[in-house]
Design brief:
It contains 11 helices and 11 strands. It has helices at about 1-5, 20-40, 40-60, 70-100, 110-115, 120, 125-135, 145-160, 200-210, 230-240, 270-275, and strands at about 145, 170-175, 180-185, 190, 195-200, 215-220, 250-255, 260-265, 300-305, 310, 320. It is globular, with a radius of gyration of 19 Å. Bound molecules: zinc ion (ZN) (2 copies). Its cofactor is Zn(2+).
Length: about 325
């Protein structure tokens, strides 16, 4: 199994992302992998476990803060997650071997089975795309969000909005009857500016989600005076969510725009892959379309989601946690 990881590429390190933020991503990826395990969705589970192991072993271990003494405890946690992921992948291997695979298309099962096939693993971006677009287990699931929750968030954010400061929140929830249901709006501690918003204290956020068994399904933020779109900073934030959950959504509330509410996700393959390899930070120009030579070239960077259902009746309930 170790040899497999050595050949799988990971996403490049972004040293401006803190170790804490990376840990939150790894924790969330693991929560989602566990959920796939409960569903018996081996393909998605294996894909996420593979990503956790490669992210820790190939990317995060190169982080400049990784070797600092004060981070010893975080490093221990990263190593634990990588070990858990590898251990589970080793358990899955015989299960995948036993599962009859009638699909013509390459699946993660083949990837795990064919450890010796260099060609298969050399470009795991292509591999993942094949997986996500064709295997039935990878079908996009519908996400339900209560419309009222968006208005509740807007009123929570109102004070900041008046002061031209952005507010952000995490959309968390559960899987119910093959639907992803947003059941919680969590407003973490944060610092907001006129054109960006940064979550703080991911530890507290994860502790709450862990206690309540809530998976991260996306995020929401306001644009007090800007139009309804995803800035380059937003696109990078969203990539870290969508890398874990393909259905993850980004909701923008822009009171001054005629569109007012936008529900977006990055194109995949396309905007997601471009963003994951982009090493720039802060606001920087991103082309409107994926440039030539990149996977998914010519596609829009992000688009309006068509897998989200806004619920207006009382068929779903939601809670609000304001941690500020
Ligand atoms: Zn924004
Ligand atoms: Zn970028």
């Amino acid at each position: 199994m170790q040899r497999l990881f050595e050949r799988v590429e990971s996403i490049p390190l972004n040293p401006y992302i803190s170790l804490r933020r990376y840990l939150y991503s790894v924790q969330q990826a693991y929560v989602h992998a566990k959920q796939y395990q409960r569903e018996g969705n081996l393909e998605r589970e294996a894909l996420l476990l593979l990503r956790i192991a490669t992210l820790v072993q190939k990317t995060i271990s190169k982080h400049p803060d990784y070797v600092k003494v004060q981070n010893a405890n975080i490093v221990k946690e990263f190593r634990l997650y990588a070990q858990l992921a590898i251990k589970r992948l080793e358990e899955i291997k015989p299960l995948i071997d036993a599962k009859e695979n009638t699909s013509e298309t390459l699946t993660i099962a083949n990837a795990v089975q064919e450890e010796s096939s260099q060609a298969v693993l050399q470009n795991n971006v292509h591999l993942e795309n094949d997986l996500l677009s064709s295997a039935p287990a990878m079908k996009t699931r519908t996400m339900q969000v209560h419309e009222e929750m968006l208005f509740v968030f807007e009123s929570i954010a109102q004070k900041n909005t008046k002061n031209n400061k952005e507010t952000c929140g995490v959309l968390a929830g559960v899987l119910q009857n093959h639907l992803l249901v947003v059941t919680s709006l969590i407003v973490p501690k944060q610092t907001g500016m006129s054109d960006s918003c940064e979550m703080l204290n991911e530890e507290e956020l994860f502790a709450l989600q862990d206690k309540k068994n809530l998976m991260t399904l996306g995020w929401i933020h306001t644009h007090p005076q800007h139009p309804c779109f995803l800035s380059s900073v937003d696109v990078h934030t969203h990539a870290s969510f969508q890398w874990i959950l393909p259905e993850a959504i980004a909701i923008v509330i822009a009171p001054t725009d005629r569109q007012r509410i936008g529900i977006f996700s990055l194109t995949h393959p396309g905007g997601l892959e471009y963003t994951l390899q982009c090493q720039q930070r802060g606001h920087h120009p991103h082309p409107e379309h994926v440039p030539k030579g990149f996977i998914g070239e010519g596609k829009l960077f992000y688009e309006n989601c068509n897998h989200v259902e806004l619920v207006r009746d009382h068929s779903i309930r939601y809670e609000v946690y304001d941690l500020r």
